[in-house]
Amino acid sequence: MLIDSFERSVDYLRISVTERCNFRCQYCMPEKPFSWVPRENILSFEELFEFVKVCIDEGINKVRITGGEPLLREDLDRFIKMIYDYAPQIDLAMTSNAFLLKQSAQKLKDAGLKRINISIDTLKPDVALKIAQKDVLSNVLAGIDEALRVGLKVKINMVPMKGLNDGEILDVLEYCKDREISVRYIEYMENVHAMVDIKGMNSDELLSIIGEKYSLEDEGFDGHSPSHYYKLEDGYEFGIIEPHKDDFCSTCNRIRLTAGGLLIPCLYFDEAISIKEAIVAGDIAKAAQILKEVVHTKPEKNRWGDEDGELSKRAFYETGG
Ligand code: SAM
Predict the structure, then answer these.
(1) What end-to-end distance do the CA atoms of the chain give, in Å?
(2) Closest ligand 1 atom to the C-alpha of 200?
(3) CA distances from 300 to 202, 223, 269, 306, 315 (A)
(4) At the N or C end, where does the chain have fewer CB atoms within 10 A?
(5) Its pTM surpasses 0.85
């Protein structure tokens, strides 16, 4: 079991298998072209799997594949199958923009993927084009339909932003309600990579919009999930992720691994240690030691709520958001 210095048990590993993405979401990626981590610096699936085994042996029981866009990495189903075959009991999930999901959902399900969180910030093609800087909506919607058809458990992530998709809070809720899938609104997290003029919406603003149509019950937090849950009068549940309140830091159970092998204890901060050398050398004892060290250095809380806090330098496309 992995316990950090604030007595939190860490049992959730998020792996960003690539920082590359086929979208250029305004709130996530820099506007100007930038250079990707060269392919030769990225760990192979075999190497990543060596470290996943170390993590599972030390007590990790939930693994989420993310990115960048994970479906851009060839043979992703092969990696998922490696993890599933090693530990079929663990919660094996993925986060994706679903652009390439229609053609891969069945393969992913067959490989052992259980759940998928899909980002959908709008139901309007022109707004999707504006946010992602690409005409993406029809592929995304087809990907969601296919994920549901093959029996993956689906959740939707939406980042509400003023002047962009603030008129669609209820539309996305209704879209999810109709399909009996849960939506989680994620408060925009300020970071130096996003375009500067993004203004996010906070949970009070979201609740006031939803509260105009529905009566709401505050259900609080559920275990380690960062989502603050609410229930509508008809029983439908949705969540809001409120990093600016950092309430969820006290139960944070996650660590993050980048495709290049950096092991990161908190999404906000720059601290990280590389497991690459140990894994490439086949030094499993060293990899396990680094894992424990990173867990030990997990900070108590993020700083998105601090007015005078330095802006996070973390690129979400690199660390998996
Ligand atoms: N490409 C995949 C996707 O679109 O879901 C996975 C990676 S993406 C970085 C993971 C999540 O992070 C998405 O739901 C995205 O909306 C969210 N995200 C990215 N940048 C964010 C920001 N600045 N604030 C809040 N959420 C952000």
Answers:
(1) 25
(2) 24
(3) 22, 17, 11, 14, 20
(4) N
(5) yes
